[in-house]
Amino acid sequence: MAVSPSSSAQQARQVLADRLADLCRDAGLTGREIAERCGWHPSKSSRIMNGRTPPSADDIQAWCRACGAENQMADLIASLRTAEGMWIGWRRMERTGLKQAQEARSPLFERTHRFRSYSSWLVPGLIQTYGYTEAVLRAVQRRRVEVDDVGEAVTARMERQRVLYEGGRQFAFLIEESVLRNGLCGADALIGQLGHLLTVGSLPNVSLGVVPMRPDRSRMPVEGFWIFDAEQVNVELVSGYLTITQPSEVGAYADTFAELAELAVYGASARALITGAMDSLG
């Protein structure tokens, strides 16, 4: 399990480590004795109990057998999987292709009622056109994914967009002005994407803000992120996909969203920036 920059993931790892240490104490064993029973170097059990080295599923099974706590195996391995899921490298997440990675997010979108999305790089996926999405996912596939299922992945993302129109959900999108002028899809497709932003921005359940480019900002751009209700944040980083559930961290992203929202323009002013970008493209 990769070490995550999120304290949510670190806390989950420490909780698991503490549970394993408790099993050891309850069995009347020392870390050295656990290592001997498992056939490990003594330092390994110490690193696991202190949360410095995450255990594997095999390690947990061996630990439980050594402590006579086989009935705890399934629950502890489930905790391991939860901690691992908070930080997923792109290679692991996309090893079977992009379609599955898209479909895996659908349940979260289905159960969320309030969405907040900030993007400093690209138009958010939920309001992308087919052509824009195809260009973005094709670039991802060429860079890091061996399986070519881009067509199916685009279809999966388009299907997910139905949440915009059902279930009484609320959406707040913030994008940097630079997003309106940069793209991977070429001028014609980008013009179509900008026209789609005008359409989506007119929906009664959608707030669309554009943060103008200016030399005297009070808050610089940050990495793109999504806030789902007030329960979870997802961040796409260069190295992987981060899930945050720690309330204090979710709150920090909510505060950041609010600060960036104060810098944005809306309504006619946002439409003027969008149409200006369209005009500059031809």
UniProtKB/TrEMBL annotation:
SMART domains: HTH_XRE (SM00530). One of its GO terms (molecular function) is DNA binding. SUPFAM superfamilies: lambda repressor-like DNA-binding domains. It comes from the Bacteria. InterPro entries: Cro/C1-type_HTH (IPR001387), DUF5753 (IPR043917), Lambda_DNA-bd_dom_sf (IPR010982). Gene3D superfamilies: lambda repressor-like DNA-binding domains. It holds the Pfam family HTH_31. CDD domains: HTH_XRE (cd00093). Residues 19-74 form the HTH cro/C1-type domain. This is XRE family transcriptional regulator. The lineage of its organism: Bacteria, Bacillati, Actinomycetota, Actinomycetes, Kitasatosporales.
